[in-house]
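Journal club side-thread
Mid-discussion, someone asked how the predicted structure for our own chain would compare to the paper's figures. Pasting it here so we can look after the session.
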Amino acid sequence: MEKEAIKIFNKISYMYSTVVTTFVSIFGGEKFLFLGYLILNVLDYVTGIIKARVTKTEKSNMGIIGIIKKVCYWILIFISFLISFLLVEIGIKININLNFIMFFGWFTLVCLIINETRSIIENLVEIGINVPSFLIKGLEIYEKIIETAIEDNTKK
């Protein structure tokens, strides 16, 4: 049973690495943002495993589900940027300026970065790490600022 889980984990890791590497190579100039998000993915996964062990809630399929979620987040980012790019290109063809739509991909990425960071902090709190309250509150405020910016930009 454990060998099966390792095989599945290796396949998912390979797919995950392929998707991430391709995505980062496409967005060369902005790769540090995507690399930062990848690092947050790994840290969230690791702190989730630690939390599960500390709280004795570890289940073999939970790790695989976590990896699948991370892959799906990357798919969401890819789709957000792809749709933005396609709509901007269509706007060029029909002579309508749709450049603001590129914000969709960036807003998706920033929302996911905030969510990953909050998840890491929640994991740390649950394993007994004293996380400064300004960090928790700061992320909440930043998320509200981003949501307001999204609303403002979609009204235009």
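Post-session note: The chain has one domain: 2-155.
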